[in-house]
């Protein structure tokens, strides 16, 4: 699945109506937060506000927040936080870092998993899967990420896939191998590894 970041040809409203035909898959293929919200709203207005869409809106509002006049993706921020923990997992601060991992994931919706709501669990999985696809898409589009040492040249496609794969493994199964968090956090690892397998 490729995450997209444009509305193609034609008017934006017309493109949204076309995407509505493939909803909710189109929602999870969309990169832009505002377009995702418009598509979700259009679905609620035209298809009825389902329980699934109530949860999708809850996750959207949890994920995208305004800060200093710009929209922040809190799920991407969590990725960066856990990436740091995966590189600094040993030593005196092991217990504190393990608590930070749990706190970070609870902050992006994992705390609600304690209720045993399977529908919420499934939609949180899809949102984390979307995050994984988004991260990999951003990596492939970023010239700095794929640059060779000192910026001379670009990695081969195989080398770039290897670097992305290493990043995903480090912030998922390797991270969990260091801290061994509670079972409820497994969705983070599972969704990211599934996204990686589907992308490559």
Key descriptive features of the protein:
200 residues; mainly alpha; 2 strands; 66% helix
What do you see in this structure?
β1 and β2 form a beta hairpin. The protein starts with 11 loop residues before the first helix and ends with a helix. The model has no long low-confidence stretch (mean pLDDT 91). The chain contains 11 helices and 2 strands; from the N terminus they run ααααββααααααα. 66% of the residues lie in helices and 4% in strands.
Write the layout of secondary structure elements.
Layout: H1 12-20, H2 25-29, H3 33-47, H4 51-63, E1 64-67, E2 70-73, H5 74-87, H6 94-106, H7 118-141, H8 143-146, H9 157-170, H10 173-179, H11 186-199
Antiparallel strand pairs: 1-2
Helix content: 55-70%
Q: List the strand order in the largest sheet.
A: 1-2
Radius of gyration, in angstroms, nearest whole number: 18 Å
Specify the oligomeric state.
single chain
Described by strand count, sense and barrel closure, the largest sheet is: 2 strands, antiparallel
Q: What structural class should be given to the helix and strand makeup?
A: mainly alpha
Series of H and E elements? HHHHEEHHHHHHH
Mean pLDDT: 91
Shape: globular
Cα separation of the termini: 10 Å
User: How many helical elements?
Assistant: 11
Q: How many DSSP-defined strands? A: 2
> Roughly what fraction of the amino acids lie in strands?
under 5%
Q: Which regions are unreliable across 5 or more consecutive residues at pLDDT < 50? A: none
